[in-house]
Amino acid sequence: MSKQENYDPSEIKRHMGMSAKNRISNTVIYIVLIIMSIVWLAPFVFIVLQSFRVESTWMVGYVVPKTWGLDNYINLAKTDFWHWYTNTFIMALATAVGQTVIVLCMSYTLSRFRFKMRNGLMRFMLILGMFPGMLSMIILYRLLKDLNMTQANAVPGLILVYIASSGMGYYVSKGFFDTVPKTLDEAARIDGATRAQVLWKIILPMAKPIVIYTILTAFMGPWGDFVVARYISMNTPAGMNVAVGLNSWLSADQIISRYTMFCAGGVIVAIPVTILFMCLQRYYVEGVTGGAVKG
Amino acid sequence: MASVVLKNVVKIYDNKVTAVHDFNLNIRDKEFVVFVGPSGCGKSTTLRMIAGLEEISGGTVEIDGEVVNDLQPKDRHIAMVFQNYALYPHMTVYDNMAFPLRIQKMPEDEIYERVTHAAEILGITDYLLRKPRALSGGQRQRVAIGRAMVRDSKVFLMDEPLSNLDAKLRNQMRAEIILLRKRLDTTFIYVTHDQTEAMTLGDRIVIMKDGYIMQVGSPGDVFYHPGNLFVAEFIGAPKMNTFKAELVKEDGEYYVKAFGSKLIADGKRGEDLKAKGVPGQQIILGVRPEHMFLASDGDPNAIECTLEVSEMMGSELHLHAITDDGTRLIVRVQTINLTPEQRKSLEIGKRIRVTFEGKVMHFFDAETEENILYPYIPEEV
Amino acid sequence: MGLEHFAPTLFCGTNQKGIKIMARYSDLEYLKLSKWDKFLYKLGRFLIAIPLGIGHFFQKVGRGIVSGAAGFGRGLKDIGSTFKNGDGITKGSFVVMGLGNMARGQFLRGILFLLFEIIFIFYMVTTGGYWLSMLPSLGHQGPMEEYNPVLDTYSTVYHDNSFKILLYGVLTIFFIIAFIYTWRQNVKQAKITQEMTEKGIRLKNGKEDLRSLVDESFYKTLLALPLTGILIFTVLPIVFMILVAFTNYDGAHDGYFNSLFKWVGLENFNTMLSWSGGSKVYSATFGEVLTWTLIWAFFATFSNYFLGMFVAMMINKKGIRFKKGWRTILVMTIAIPQFISLLYVSKMFARNGIVNGFLLDMGWIKQSLPFWDDPTWARITVILINIWIGIPYLMLIVTGILMNIPADLYESAKIDGASGWKQFSKITLPYMLFITGPYLLTQFTGNMNNFNVIFLLTGGGPTNPAASGASGAVGFTDLLVTWLFKITTGAESKYYLASVVGILIFIVVAIISLVVYNILPSVKNEEDFQ
Q1: One CATH from 1.10.3720.10, 3.40.50.10310, 3.40.50.720, 1.20.1600.10 for C273-524
Q2: How many independent structural domains does chain B possess?
Q3: Is B39's Cβ below 8 Å from some Cβ in C?
Q4: Subunit contact B86:A206, Cβ cutoff 8 A
Q5: Which of B59, B187, C44, C152 is at a distance of 20 to 30 A from B204, taking alpha carbons?
Q6: Closest to B100 (Cβ–Cβ): which among A114, A191, A194?
Q7: Chain C residues inside the 8 Å CB shell of A63
Q8: What CATH code is assigned to A76-294?
Q9: Which of A77-81, B43-47, B160-164 has the lowest mean pLDDT?
Q10: Tell me, what's the ipTM?
Q11: CA A251/CA C325 separation, integer angstroms
């Protein structure tokens, strides 16, 4: 008797049932995913489409422009937009460098050194983090004003604010350093390296993913910051970043003439950041998942 | 090449747990000392204090006559091999081995000489340009040893270097460490939880438990003259059988009463008992499985027991038996010595009769578990 | 036990046996309970655990204070005995800092100590003393119209500056604390150097001290910069703003140009929290905003969490293709700066926005939907858009964790005959909750303070007419933080009220964190899933 004949027909049917069920559920999932992709991408497609609209500069109830053109992009040059853009770009670069240095110092230290005040320090920072950061803005504004780093000169002031407190955000990269075996440090110290050499020659070269993650998030910060930039620049266009500047175009008195330019500006802001992000996506994903798991 | 002296060394962790109590040891130049004990006994902590990786809470550590308590690991001139190899993953094998030399700013051609020489000895020349993740466990361990070898270190520390290897490779590496030791001719301190490694490698063995030294001695010492019950049970496999018994002194002769049998303590043991004038008392009797054998039919002092498990190990049988009062014991029997009848009688559930000779008995105080003959009287040659 | 007597006794349909909630069951007793009883028992234990946890916390704080005081006492005693047993040099170090180090060959340390002392004394004499002396009053003389004989006019002359007095007063106190600490270190060093010299142990010289900064004391080097930043840009402002809550600092009392501000004690807290009189509008507004803040944080956190998990599992399902593609589409939306997407989406849902335009064109509605104009619509829309913002992040995180769940857990579950749902509810979900517990907490408190989403989407609107008496134009979607922002930027700029709100936010966040931390399994049993 061949094995084939041994099969119970109902058994075969059940198998078919399983795969049919699977096919249906997969189809449902595909449909959901396609709808989701549309919902998630649509606003960005809309922004791009509207940035090419010429016939009206205000909001309209439709998406596809009736007349296409680059007017909005050209008009950006007549505004402070490029000034804001340069401001933001400078801040992003400076923050990326400064914040990375500080975060790495902080997280490596807390991961590797067991000094007397370590636990107290971590608890203290946890408690500090429970105060709304907004509260500090009033005094930071006054402090920076005394140093002439507000309003038109907001850029250095903002850089200082972004970098200065970044030590508090050590959690993700400390989580990474915690996963690097401590015996590597110990082996290197026995091999004759000082603590500084351990960090520089052993740990940092291995920490490429987290360094890139830190640089990336630090770089992206100033592009999206709204609160701090608005507070420190205090309604002075020369000191604004793109977020504050473009937001001012949506105020009741400007939106009629500036709405499509807002879209064009948004597109120009989004392009470099998105490209950079997509290139370094892998590191971002590693950092985010690692950080959440480590808590 | 240096001596290592530990005086009253204590380790207390931040949470007030004392990991090492009053540790005193004098390790001679070029000696191979093994710290052995169950996990959590403080052996690794002690090693790490010597290395400078743990702060010393009390006492002093001297290397080559210099107190090193406040010296950083890098200033202690030691080399160390870790259990998990601790190879730098972003460096090639060559760079890994060259790292300690580059830190010293040694000229590159000398580094080349040393690294390739060490690689040749360890048989890893073919992998010099590979990254550690492309190597097998055994190869990684060789690189780790190589990295420790290339330097002129005074003391060579090894923290469970073979624990991550499989059994076969472990035996092979063990032999290689013996060869390495001959070649390097320096002071070795080796930490392991495996008594076989300790016995085969060490000139002297330091057996530890709960942060205390239980006994220090040569492999022969700790095997034949365990200072206490813990050492007796820890060294040797399968572990020593122990019974509740009574030591009786009658007409100047010593007897051991156990299971209703009365065995005479003769040979060296009997002489030592007499020499020390030990009074009769309740004791724990220890006999190693390899020193027990199946009793002849007529033996009146044989122990009656029931065979529970019989493990065939090839050249020998491990018989696990239980006496009528519930004491379990193990007997190692050479298979080649068994008669066909005996082999037949060794079935599970059958009654067997076992016995041992007086000269192989160990006597431990029933209360303190100390060996009542310790320190032992050396044999006259 | 007396408590048992009062404990609610709950009956269960099947076994008619009451279970005791206040009592503790042994493991074996617990195992015999029915499912429902087990649930009740656990719930009871959970509820009991909350006050216990908080009690435990205060106990810990109390013990901390006691041991701190004991430490302080020991310190004083040590200082005393150092003075008594010290030689001339050590005694001299009590006045001239660093003398002990210098006299015994540690020049670098000694000079640094001495330098610090000189700077401190110089600062205190020149300016510090002034700020400190003004701190209790926050200034005597406000701006005044004074006759200027040169110009022969009256002009405003500015005198004391309350803001600066408060700020530099606080800084001076920081400095004094630092000085006391350094002085104490100096005394310790004097003692140690004396002891070591007597024992004949060689002391570290300056070069070795410097070298240790890249070796055993490398952490000091690494922490110097970050901690200075945190001290000046986080700690100082927070201390300052806490103090502001006890003053009447606002737009009208700016401390210099308009008029001085002064200490008012607990008056501002009274205004914010009392339920009587004219300030009732504040407490009512606070209650309302707080309620919405908590509702928002709850929905924003958990809707994202579960939907994100759902999306991640859909993409992760065996047999689904283009996994990378789907993920990339979602992840891309993270890259685009939030203000662009939030502002744009906010406009999409406006009365004349694309969404309404589309729905009107299709003829599905006759009138524009009041997405931002009606309180309930606005609140729901905000939560929905937040889902749109948040799901990509959650999807990423959950995907990472899903991949880390050991496959053999599922394999053994399958062999044990668990269905897909059982596998989710018995393996995936508990694992997730365990691992992401702390993350959920930070998400929750983060959402409570989620300024960007609310401010850029609605600006807090629609305006709540009932709260018009409270400072700032409070709206129905305003969170405590956005309200705080409005208070500080409004015409009146009632900084003192903003500080009170800020302190209250801190208290709420701290209580929630405390409770959650005490019951989180991943904090308690770290090894469970390892």
Answers
A1: 1.10.3720.10
A2: 2
A3: no
A4: no
A5: B59
A6: A191
A7: 354
A8: 1.10.3720.10
A9: A77-81
A10: 0.84
A11: 37
